Each structure stands twice: as structure tokens, then as C-alpha cells.
Amino acid sequence: MTTGVAPHDADAATGPACVLVLGGGGREHAIVWSLSRETAVQQVLVAPGSDAIGEEPKARCFPGVSALDPAAVLDLATRENVDLVVVGPEAPLAAGVVDYLTDAGVPTFGPTRAAARIEWSKAFCREVAAAAGVRMARGRDFVVLEPALDFARELAEAPGSRGVVIKADGLMAGKGVTVCDDLMAAHGALLSLFSSLPEGEPAQPVVVIEERLIGAEASLIALCDDHGALALPPARDHKRLLDEDRGPNTGGMGAYSPVPDLPESLCATLVDVIHLPILAELARRGAPFRGALYAGLMLTPEGPVLIECNARFGDPEAQVLLPRLAVPLGPLLYGAAQGDLAAAAGELGVHGRMLPTTGDAAVAVVLAAANYPDTPRKGDAISGLEDAARAGATIFHAGTTRGQDFTYRTNGGRVLAVVGLGTTVRAARDAAEAAADRISWSGMQRRRDIAAKLPPGAGSAGASPEPISESAWTKGAAS
Known about the structure:
Elements: E1 18-23, H1 26-35, E2 43-48, E3 59-61, H2 70-79, E4 84-87, H3 90-94, H4 97-103, E5 108-109, H5 113-120, H6 122-132, E6 139-142, H7 145-156, E7 164-168, E8 177-180, H8 183-195, E9 207-211, E10 216-225, E11 229-231, E12 236-237, E13 240-242, E14 246-249, E15 254-257, H9 264-284, E16 290-300, E17 303-310, H10 317-321, H11 330-337, H12 341-347, E18 361-368, H13 385-390, E19 394-397, E20 400-402, E21 408-410, E22 414-422, H14 425-436, E23 445-446, H15 470-478
Parallel strand pairs: 1-2, 1-4, 2-3, 4-5
Antiparallel strand pairs: 6-9, 7-8, 7-9, 10-11, 10-16, 12-15, 13-14, 15-18, 16-17, 18-22, 18-23, 19-22, 20-21
Helix pairs in contact: 2-4, 5-6, 6-9, 7-8, 9-15, 11-12
């Protein structure tokens, strides 16, 4: 169940008539929501989709088709005369679904398995970034425990150390990172990680260990086609479960855009010094990247530092970014899939590195199930959805199912993203909070500080303060 109008003049859009979206979470709901409001798009098929996604205009879900089954996906795409396949989550990318589809001649927005390795192997990401000249935190990857413990001690005991970050290498659904304040915590995280492995020495890195950086995080996601990139506006998500950034890491408990301390006027520069060099390096290695390249940044006083790359739209970032777009999404995804993003952008009147946005800001408040992120409880009845929609919120379903009584129930860890729009971040936050207050179920978890702490004078969806000069950012990014 969503509300809202198309964020752009859909009548001016041209692009794929039939799109197949793979996935069924909140990110995919946002993608379907956006595509289904474009005049040129006649059908949006979703595999497997969800009950809520199936309620979107033009949407049709295929719950019996697994996004991880390449043959089943290709069969569906062929049978339904699909013009474009859009891969939402990371697992199908790592499984090589894009390779299978592109080999069969189906235009697909999403990188091949070799290119998507930049997400599912944090060690590979560091290797590519180093070769591309993109700055990351000091760190190393390890296969066995003892040298990993020694390096963690070296970082923890270094002058001015702020702590150590332990990253499990592999697909962890956004929850494989442990931020450690001291050596004892780092050793505990490493012992826990290595003790969970099967016997025998692994053939590839198990863990990446990095120095802990201090600053604010931000996400800059760009649509890419091997060599070119067009960035969405920046966003910031909140990973920890509890207010004040306490509790365990999660897939994301909320997000907002724009980001006051990452001015959009500087994002084009960051695309030049982060996204484009990484695209060039991947192409040099024979793994050209077509899809959404997500740069997770730490905004330090010395400039931005890349902390991770993902190979798809963020979640919950997509839920606040797509409602802000002032141009249709379908033609851009179709152009990128065919290696012709620049031409698609030109037809829409888009020039430069940044996609145009509406005048609105957006804030998403994620509502999570009881016991998330450990073993989320399923089956709790959700109340207040219609009241929240009447309050003007856009509600994206991430983990719900609808019973025969038409009642939505929890069916995952992160259950809903309640999105508010407004002329400022603060106004958007007020709208999201007011709508989220109307929704409840037994054991529901949420943060109440999403976008609550903004720099003085911030909040506008347009001009933002620039605490660091462009020269400092450029130097920091490229060093």
C-alpha cells in the first residue's frame, strides 16, 4: 500500500514497455513504485514480488519464480516479452543471474558476477580501489586468525587510534561489519568469526580489518554503463538498531536525502574521483560494470573516504532517493543496460554527472519486527496502514504478507519503510514520524532519531552548508 504521485512528467518519458524486477523487498517495492508511474511503462513484472508490491499500478507478481534461478527468470522474461530486467538485491548478482540473462540477449540492469564481486568481496573492493587510486581506510585482508589478531593489535595500539573495524568477507546482507572501540572487542569479533568457519584453511580471504574512521557516513549511488555514471542525490542511512547509534548493526533503520554536510554541488566531483576510476579499473580487469554502483563514504575532516562499494541500489536509500527524482527511471536503466546511458540521459535533457531532483526532501523511518536483527518474529498483525497512508506517507513493504482476511502481517526483519516528503529534511521527518506513529504491531521496533540531528541551518532540499572546501574534498578523495 503506497500513496503519492509520480515525481516527474511521465508523459515525456520513453523507455521499456515491459520491465521485470527481481526481488521482493522494500528496495524493489520502491523501484516498482517508480516504474509503474511512468506512462511509457505498460507492465511491471516482479519475481517473486510480494502481496503489497502486487497492489501497485501495472504490477504483476510471480511468487513461484525465484530471483536466484537463472533459467526460471529467463523463461519468464522470454514468455512475457520483457524489454528490461532490473535486479534489485545482491544475492542474484553474486549468483550470476545477470550473466545468464545477458548471454541470452536480455537487456539487464545489474552487473555480472565478476563485476558484482566489488560488493560481495570486501577484499576485492580494496584491491580495485587501490589500483584505481581511490582512498580507503588503512587495512588488510586475512585468511587465518593469528596474523589477523596481530594486525588488529597494530591498529588498536597505533597513536591516535579510534578503534578497529572488522568486516566479514562475503555477502552479509549489510550486517557483516563490527565496529570495535578497543583491542578486546576486536579480538572477540575475530574469534567469533573464525570459530564459525568449517575446518580447513579457506581458499579466499575471510575478513578485512581496517582502522576506524571518525566522521559522518553518506551514500552516493550512480547509474553506470561500463564507462559512464550518473549520480542520484546523496543519502544517509542509519545502520544501528537503536537511537543514538546504539545496538547491533542492521540492514538500515532509516534514511534521508538530501545530506546537508554532503552538498550536491560536490557530488559530481566525487563521481569523477571515485565512481569513474573504479569503473575504469573493473573494465581493465575484464569485468565491465552496468548497474547501480553504490559508494559508501565516510566524511572525515580531511575529506571523503570510501568505506565500501555495493553493486545495487541501497536499502533503505532507494526508498528516499527514487521519490526525489525529477526524470523517469525506466529509460535510464534501459540505456545503462544497453551500454548507452549518455544517449538515454540526453534524450531526457540530463547533462553532467547528477540526476535532477524535485524540490522535496525525503525521510524514511524503518519499522522492524520483534527480535530483529537476530531471529525476527513473523506473523504479527499490522494495524494502522490505512491511517498512515491517509496522513500522506508513502509506505514501502519490505517484509510483509497478507492473509485471507486481507490483514498484513510481519514476514521479515525490516517490515516497512514509512517515507515522508517535505520542502526541508525537517519537514519530511515530521511527516514520516507522524505517519509511523499510526502503525503498530506486537514487538515493533523503530528508531525515533532518523534525521533528527542536522547541522545548524540545514534542512533545505536545495542549498546546504559546505563545511569543507571543494579543494579539500578533491584532495582527500584522490589521495
